[in-house]
Specification:
heterodimer; A: 455 residues; alpha/beta; Urease, subunit C, domain 1; 2 domains; eight-stranded mixed sheet; 16 strands; B: alpha/beta; TIM Barrel; 21% strand; globular
Chain lengths: 455, 430
């Protein structure tokens, strides 16, 4: 018994020593001899990246290592910034739609983050490091969203991307129209595109009234204090968390992310936002955006959409895989997003499609999954390119990331290797062998036979 | 009004896409010819005459009146075969009036998709742009969904497109449901009765009944003495299946179901083709030994079980091929992404499949599977001139197919997308 314990301790220490080098926090990390695509600069063939802490400290050729540096030889692999997915619904516990009512900005995805969602790891294995995980599209004004980093293994709080501006989800068109089913037997307003816009307008007006009521209360309070007891103490208005968020929205606290397909409703909502001085950050999907590039450009709103997914509903039918590239060429800021845990694993392949459809350059195509979504999310000073002092969020591929046969081999978040394909498979093999051994030798360690029946 | 106009326009596009007149004889010169069944010829020429491949070689002289295509720097491949689609049966997947895949009831072995395919669907024109020239169009739903058809991706009418209106029958083999996080947490996840086995029993009983019906019919005809049983269209539809003449496509996913399906195929003596086999890697030897070919489903999907490796679906293909399983690719059940067929193959190559095996799985393998390898599946003299000329590796999303031939006729590669692209590209910038 005793010597077995010693053996276990020995194994534990040995494993710790084995694992420590790459994952230790204190040491600097040097990625050597990779083909680096920094996005912001020219590609460096056979370059190095020095990482200190969670930041990129140096990029260039032949960076010297010190005894305090851990070196990973990339042997000519391709290095790019960690991929950013600007529209997804990953790591969310339960449903993504608070569809019981049509205006629900009081809900926040931050409150329902699910850090054990294993599709986060699958996405890391596809080179993704940052995700904008969003409320669904059932409501004209939906919930608030959150930007997370795929810090696999950490708790919900630690996933949140600190410093990312707050965003809120809106939705137009078919989805809010057909979202009556959440209340069986009772139809929910709105049912038409007219109603969707009216619902948003109404919410704005209510929020303005709410603001006015509070302004009046504060004014009355001041007067009451001045009056030194000669006046009645004013009563505060009833707190309304929903209207408070919309009031903040009208003051510009949130970046509006508006789900929209049809060009007409995008034009209409841009007019509405101008009237209320609300800033739209991006239209989600925007499958008909190619028709209104002039207007989008003039207003200055971005589009984040699918590379070529289409035809699943009427509003998604009048489009083409050239959509994003055409908009990009005509001056609109565009990003390729997944909107799916599965597609997120292969966003780099979707980016390659923009080279084929619409003729973006390879660099422009890569921008749509790195710096462009970072700009749309307002996190471009932290991530999106490989530059000194930016976060060390890095994806490493065995071939050029747009090559059809490319495989993501390693992903770093904040300078830590969170996915290493070789190691991953070695560990799985080891675990499988262990399991097999246990099954073959049912000696002392064998479990008691399972008793059938339920208790 | 505008919408009606647009919709009419959409419907009319495929009509306008077929070339008005194209010469009967075409010579493709100076290309890399990749016949798939043999070594590539570089540089090589290929002569199309009367809808067939007339000659392949070097320095073929141009016959009089032939159209000559100088394909220097480009490559010629046999047209790809998409082994499972709903092309022409689904237009917009959320609008019921445009969907013709699922009939009511569970037992519909007599239904033929050939009765319902819309040859003017936009999806034929959009999904052939990456080199797909033939597709298996399948019904879905129920237990016996109906009979699939093999069609060419171009033609003025369904009759011009049809290769075989009785290509294979579909049996939806019961699948053990995928485990989700919610179902894992649920205590009731282990149902006491194995539903899968029960449904298999039902299918077997149905097949036995059908067999008995046909036996009685023959007995009555040969020996007489009693009237034949009343006509049963459903059992009639199963006749070629029971005789082992028409293959049956069984959708299977988990290893457990695959084993069950192999046993089922053996017992019922059916000519079976598997579709899916996401966990085929766990029982690859068994599939190979049973000599059952596999149609790989869309690879745009994650692992079946949370315990599986993140790349299980992608490595699965090469593991099965190494074990000796014949495979072919398909774009899967969603018509909107049919053009991605070669990209699915590329994912399998990225995770271990040999490039040449991937090409075979897009051409000659499915041709053999459906018994049309005498006409299609490779570049060989005498075969149908269904082929394409591309700027690069056909599995690369950045390559562009420049010319596509079906039955030796050059197919216009314009489609609903291209029409929109040309129109809106020319909107003046303000």
């Amino acid at each position: 018994m005793k010597h077995k314990l010693i053996l276990y301790i020995f194994i534990a220490v040995f494993m710790a020593i084995e694992i420590l080098p790459v994952y230790s926090r204190g040491k600097d990390l040097l990625l050597k001899n990779g083909n680096i695509i920094p996005i912001s600069h020219k590609t460096i063939m056979g370059g190095d990246i020095l990482i200190k802490g969670n930041k990129i400290a140096k990029i260039g050729e032949k960076i010297e290592s010190t005894p305090n540096t851990l070196v990973i030889d990339l042997k000519g692999k391709w290095v790019m910034p960690g991929i950013i997915d600007s529209h997804a619904h990953i790591a969310i516990e339960g449903g993504v739609n608070e569809g019981s009512e049509s205006i629900t900005p009081e809900v926040h995805i931050k409150d329902v983050l699910q850090p054990e969602d294993y599709s986060m790891f699958h996405s890391l294995a596809g080179g993704v490091t940052t995700v904008h995980t969003m409320h669904g599209s059932a409501n004209p004004i939906g919930g608030r969203n959150v930007v997370i980093k795929l810090r696999w293994g950490k708790g919900a709080e630690e996933l949140i991307f600190k410093g990312a501006p707050e965003t809120i989800k809106w939705a137009l068109g078919e989805n809010p129209k057909r979202s009556n089913s959440y209340r069986p037997g009772r139809a929910r307003y709105p049912k038409t595109r007219m109603g969707v816009e009216a619902a948003i307008r109404k919410a704005f007006e209510k929020a303005r009234d709410y603001e006015k009521a509070w302004d009046k209360y504060e004014k009355d309070m001041k007067a009451y204090k001045k009056s030194k007891g000669k006046m009645f103490k004013p009563l505060p208005p009833r707190k309304n968390y929903r209207l408070e968020v919309i009031s903040d929205l009208l003051k510009g606290k949130y970046r509006v992310r508006c789900h929209a397909y049809q060009s007409e409703e995008m034009l209409s909502i841009m007019k509405l936002c101008k009237a209320y001085n609300v800033k739209l950050a991006a239209f989600e999907h925007g499958l008909e955006g190619y028709r209104i590039t002039n207007e989008l450009g003039k207003y200055g709103v971005a589009i984040t959409g699918f590379a070529d997914f289409w035809g699943y509903k009427w509003e998604a039918f009048n489009t083409l895989p050239h959509n994003l590239a055409l908009m990009a060429k005509r001056g609109v800021l565009v990003a390729v997003n997944s909107d799916s845990n599965e597609r997120m694993r292969r966003l780099f392949l979707d980016a390659a499609k923009l080279v084929r459809f619409g003729g973006l350059t390879e660099l422009e195509a890569l921008k749509t999954i790195t710096i462009n979504p970072a700009i749309i999310l307002g996190i471009d000073k932290y991530v999106g390119t490989l530059e000194v002092n930016k976060d060390a969020d890095i994806a490493i591929f065995n071939r050029h990331p747009l090559d059809p046969y490319t495989v993501c081999e390693m992903t770093l978040v904040d300078g830590k290797v969170l996915f290493d394909r070789t190691k991953y498979h070695l560990e799985r093999e080891k675990a499988a062998e262990k399991k097999k051994e246990k099954e073959e030798k049912p000696g002392k360690n064998a479990k008691a036979p399972k008793i059938k029946g339920e208790f | 009004m505008k919408r009606i106009f647009i919709f009419t326009a959409i419907c009319l596009i495929p009509l306008a896409l077929v070339c008005k007149t194209s010469p009967d004889t075409v010579l493709i010169k100076n290309a890399t010819i990749v016949p798939v069944t043999e070594q590539p010829i570089h540089p090589g020429d290929l002569l199309i005459k009367g809808g067939k491949i007339a000659r392949i070689g070097k320095g073929i002289p141009s016959p009089e009146g032939a159209a000559v295509i100088d394909a220097s720097g480009m490559s010629v491949y046999p047209g790809f075969i998409d082994a499972y689609t709903h092309f022409g049966l689904v237009e917009i997947s959320s609008i019921a009036s445009t969907i013709d895949t699922n009939e009511m009831g569970k037992m519909n072995p007599e239904l033929k998709v050939a009765w319902a395919i819309n040859p003017h669907s936009v999806h034929f024109a959009t999904n052939r742009i990456n080199g797909t020239t033939t597709a298996l169009v399948a019904p879905s739903g129920g237990t016996f969904s109906g009979i699939t058809a093999l069609v060419k991706m171009d033609g003025w009418s369904i009759d011009e497109m049809l290769i075989n209106d009785e290509a294979a029958s579909i049996i939806n083999f019961p699948m053990t449901p995928r485990e989700t996080r919610a179902s894992r947490l649920s205590k009731q996840k282990k149902a006491k009765i194995d539903i899968t086995a029960k449904i298999v029993e039902k299918i077997k009983k149905y097949l036995t009944d059908a067999r008995r019906y046909h036996e009685l019919k023959t007995l009555s005809k040969e020996k007489g003495g009693f009237p034949p049983p009343g006509m049963n269209a459903k059992y009639e539809g199963l006749k070629p299946v029971l005789e082992g003449k028409m293959p049956v496509i069984l959708s299977v996913e988990k290893a457990k179901d695959i084993k069950l399906a192999i046993k089922f195929a053996k017992e019922e003596k059916l000519k079976v083709i598997f579709r899916g086999c996401a966990q085929g890697y766990k029982v690859a030897d068994k599939i190979a030994r049973a000599k059952i070919p596999v149609i790989i489903d869309s690879l745009y999907t994650g692992p079946v079980d949370p315990e599986e490796a993140y790349d299980a679906q992608w490595t699965n293909v090469s593991i099965m091929v190494k074990a000796g399983v014949t495979i072919c690719f398909s774009s899967g059940g969603y018509v909107g992404v049919g053009k991605d067929l070669p990209y699915h193959a590329a994912r399998a190559v990225a995770f271990g499949l040999k490039h040449e095996d991937a090409l075979k799985a897009l051409t000659i393998n499915p041709a053999k599977m459906f018994g049309i390898d005498n006409r299609l599946g490779s570049l060989e003299v005498g075969k149908d001139a269904d082929l394409f000329v591309t700027t690069g590796d056909p599995l690369d999303a950045r390559s562009v197919v420049k010319y596509l031939f079906i039955n030796g006729k050059r197919v216009n590669l314009d489609n609903w997308w291209e029409t929109q692209y040309k129109k809106w590209k020319s909107r003046p910038l303000k």
